[in-house]
Amino acid sequence: MADAYFSLFTLIVLIPLALIAFVYFLVRPRPVKIPIKNRHVFITGGSSGIGLALAHHAAAQGARVSILARSRNKLEEARNAVRLATGIDVSVFAADVRDYDAVKRAVDEAGPIDVLLLNHGVFVALELEKQELSEVKFTLDVNLMGSFNLIKAALPAMRTRKDPQQPVSIALVSSQAGQVGIYGYAAYSASKFGLRGLAEALQQEVIADNIHVSLIFPPDTDTPGFAEENKRKPELTKIIASSSGAMKPEEVAQKTFDGIKSGSFIIPCNLEGIALSLATAGLSPQRSFLMATVEVLAAGILRIAGLCFQWTWYTSIEKWHNQRKGSPQRS
Questions:
Q1: Where would one find coiled-coil regions in this protein (predicted)?
Q2: Banded pLDDT at 243 (limits 50, 70, 90)
Q3: Catalytic positions, written as ranges
Q4: How far apart are CA 177 and CA 213, in angstroms?
């Protein structure tokens, strides 16, 4: 009987504790806390949607805020909105993220950055065959090359900052379409998947300088651009993406800063995002030994869940095509 109790104790207590201790030893980089108050937060795509919500949130936390976007008029509207809501005056910079020289001038004028928050992006849902290559290139240039431009412009000053003991952050806003490819998102998903490779490699390059990289994965978000995006979405895209509800920009902003302040590399924004992040953890950095343990234990189960999602999506695609083949052709 004693042997049976000991075996049960080993199975329930000792093995899990040993796993947690082993994972705690392995996780890198180590946990960090990144303050926002009295720091300079520079936000791209900051004139509307998630970017404007991020500006509100940073200002409310006592940060010095700079926002960058293309439209001077929208930037002024955003500055007035933040001032009215928080009493804080933000700095605004008009530049196209595709233009490195313009971006460099804005970054230099803004001054040393403590939190570089890359939120800019464009999105068009359309089958690749129907999409012009110029539109594909525009998507990649804005979403991916724009991020390279900002990081290249800001990184030298971030590395040579006055207090290297104070951790600083580079945060990139990706998308759940940067975790899993969806029908009609070929160009967009390529640009957002690219951010993950950039972030993983960059974290290794800058960790010695106490610079910490985060990657945010919001779902569909109820922004002014979201309604426009839906007008062009293929029917199959709407069917497949319908399982994920839209979040409010303010909710995404809250999740973003919670993750940045804890130095998280992967920042999901809802329950579906947590499941996607666990399922796609792969070789990504993980600071939390508890989350790392969950990733280890949940890997097999989440792979089964992922296969179920794929079955659902491909069944929907097959059904949609069969219906089109069976319907009378319009003259």
A1: none
A2: low
A3: 174, 188, 192
A4: 19
Residue 241: Cβ within 10 Å count: 21
Q: What is the 3-state secondary structure (H, E, C) of the chain?
A: CHHHHHHHHHHHHHHHHHHHHHHHHHCCCCCCCCCCCCCEEEEECCCCHHHHHHHHHHHHCCCEEEEEECCHHHHHHHHHHHHHHHCCCCEEEECCCCCHHHHHHHHHHHCCCCEEEECCCCCCCCCHHHCCHHHHHHHHHHHHHHHHHHHHHHHHHHHCCCCCCCCEEEEEECCHHHCCCCCCCHHHHHHHHHHHHHHHHHHHHHHHHCEEEEEEECCCECCHHHHHHHHHCCHHHHHHHCCCCCECHHHHHHHHHHHHHCCCCEEECCHHHHHHHHHCCCCCCCCCHHHHHHHHHHHHHHHHHHHHHHHHHHHHHHHHHHHHHHCCCCC
Q: Is the pLDDT of residue 261 over 60?
A: yes
Looking at residue 160, its amino acid is T
**Which amino acid type is present at position 331?**
S
The β-bridge relationship of strands 40-44 and 64-69 is parallel
pLDDT above 80 (res 10): no
The one-letter code for the residue type at 56 is H
Among the listed ranges 50-64, 175-189, 211-225, 236-250, which one has the minimum average pLDDT value? 236-250
Q: What would the two tokens of residue 255 be?
A: 């999740």
pLDDT given at position 331: 34
| Contact call for residues 244 and 273 (beta carbons, < 8 A) | no
- Could you give the CA distance from residue 121 to residue 140 in angstroms, rounded to a whole number? 9
Per the CB < 8 A criterion, the answer to whether 146 and 163 are in contact is: no
- pLDDT over 80 at 330, yes or no: no
Rounded Cα gap, residues 19 and 88, in angstroms: 47
What are the φ and ψ backbone dihedral angles of 32, each rounded to 5 degrees?
-150, 155
Quote the CA–CA distance of 145 and 331 in Å, as a whole number.
44
pLDDT digits (tens, 9 = 90+) for 19-29: 788 888 888 89
